[in-house]
Each structure stands twice: as structure tokens, then as C-alpha cells.
Specification:
The chain is of the alpha/beta class and 261 residues long. It is 38% helix and 18% strand.
Length: 261
């Protein structure tokens, strides 16, 4: 099967997941956030951060109080790597300001226009930009919380692990990111083998899948190696890695989530 045909099949499967997740609810939330975007202030929108040409970020902050530095939350949206936009999270940005944070909500290049390596690069550049620039918005560069949901959580985990290990990305060896206060990850898929019932069906086995059909398909479609955060960690011997660049990570899951249970 040609790559274009595989891509079509994959997109159809993702669309089916969107319907299962309640696409009407997503559209309603998008409408409400677009309306909210025009109603509220305390933000700077569509800032270029040095990543993909089409990717921008928004900063939510107290415009009349930038001298008192506040903790920062960077949020990376989900959407199965092929849909989603920062415009859907304007209410989240406002809430972060109300709770005493500076919020950074960023876009990243989406499939099929970009592969995992380019998505990862956008997240990496977002953190770099925030560390270098957030002070003028009243944010404390030494208190950055990096957060993501679903596909965004996967990209956040991949970004922190690959940068800490100084792995190669887009033909460049990475430098570790500035130290983060913590990661907060919602409903993230960290190993594609965890969702591979196809291989179990084909092999008639209940054993744990390792580099099965779904993972190999994702590697081909997204034209990237090292796509699973846990796969990277499994290759590291015990005691060889003591610090990932942050002291704490919070994982959140929901029993009502039918996509990443």
C-alpha cells in the first residue's frame, strides 16, 4: 500500500475517533472560545517563536502588573496530531491569569504538513522562547510548568526526554531545555503499543506488544524515529539517568476517556 493510501486510511480512522469523542461538543467549545477571544484583554496573540512558519503562540498576562513575577504555564493542545488550535483555549488562558499565572498557549505544525520531528521542534522552540522572553510579560522564567493534553502530552514527554538525552532532531543534536518546575500531562499516549489490538488479533496472543503494527504504521506515517517516550526510556540501563530536567511530573487520566483510557 502506498504512503498516500496509508495516510488516507489513518485520517479516516482519526475522524472516526473524533466522532466517537463528540465532535459537536468540540465545535461548540471552539465557537465559545472564539467569541471569548474578542471579549477579553490581558493577552498578546500570534507571536512567532522560531518554529514552523505557521505556528504561533499567545501569552495571557496581567498587563498592569508585570513587575511582580508569576509562575508560568505552557499548554500544548491535543487533537490526534492532525487538528486543534490555540484559539480553542482562550478561556483557559483567562483562567490562568485569574489564578495568578502567566499562560502561554502554543500551536505546532500538524499532520500531514509536519512529522513528529517538526511538531517536537515547535514544542522545543516554544519552551526556549518562553524562557528567554516571558519576564517582560510578568512571568518567572525559573518557574515554568510545561503542560499538554493527549497528543500534546505525548509531544511534551517526547520533547523533554529527547532534549535531556541530547538526541538528534532535524539533523541537529539537541541541547537540554532550561530547567522546568514540573510537567502536568493529561490523557497522554506514551507508547503506541499500548493501543495495538491489531497485532494481538493477528498473532492470537495476549502477550505485551513490542514494536507492533500500530507503532510501525505511526513511524512510517509520521516519518519519524523514536516516536514513543517510553520506548526511549526502555533502552536506558538502570541508574544511567537520574534527572530529566524537572523534579516532578503529574499524570492525569479520566475513566470517561474512550480514546486514551
Amino acid at each position: 500500500m502506498k504512503l498516500t493510501n496509508l495516510t488516507t486510511v489513518f485520517v479516516i480512522l482519526l475522524c472516526a475517533l473524533m466522532v466517537n469523542a463528540g465532535i459537536l461538543d468540540h465545535l461548540d467549545a471552539l465557537k465559545n472560545n472564539i467569541i471569548n477571544n474578542f471579549k477579553t484583554g490581558n493577552k498578546k496573540t500570534d507571536i512567532s517563536f522560531g518554529g514552523s512558519l505557521t505556528s504561533k503562540l499567545d501569552v495571557y498576562y496581567q498587563e498592569n502588573d508585570t513587575s511582580n513575577l508569576k509562575p508560568v504555564v505552557i499548554y500544548i493542545h491535543g487533537g490526534a496530531w492532525f487538528y486543534g488550535d490555540k484559539i480553542k483555549f482562550t478561556k483557559m488562558g483567562d483562567l490562568l491569569v485569574e489564578e495568578g499565572f502567566v499562560g502561554v498557549i502554543s500551536n505546532y505544525i500538524l499532520f500531514p504538513f509536519g512529522n513528529f520531528d517538526k511538531m517536537f521542534n515547535d514544542v522545543y522552540k516554544t519552551v526556549e522562547w518562553t524562557y528567554k522572553n516571558i519576564k517582560k510579560y510578568g512571568g518567572d522564567p525559573n518557574r515554568i510548568i510545561l503542560s499538554g493534553h493527549s497528543a500534546g502530552a505525548h509531544l511534551v514527554a517526547l520533547t523533554t526526554i529527547k532534549s535531556t538525552l541530547r538526541m538528534e532532531n532535524l539533523n541537529q543534536n539537541l541541547s537540554p531545555l532550561p530547567r522546568l518546575e514540573k510537567l502536568v500531562l493529561f490523557s497522554g499516549p506514551y507508547d503506541f503499543d499500548n493501543y495495538d489490538n491489531i497485532t494481538k488479533l493477528l498473532t492470537n496472543s495476549e502477550e505485551e506488544v513490542d514494536h507492533g503494527f500500530v507503532e510501525r504504521l505511526a513511524t512510517v506515517l509520521f516519518r519519524s524515529k523514536n516516536i514513543g517516550p517510553t520506548d526511549i526510556l526502555k533502552k536506558i540501563g538502570d541508574g544511567q539517568l537520574t534527572d530529566l530536567g524537572f523534579p516532578k511530573v503529574n499524570f492525569y487520566y479520566s475513566k470517561e476517556d474512550n480514546i486514551v483510557p
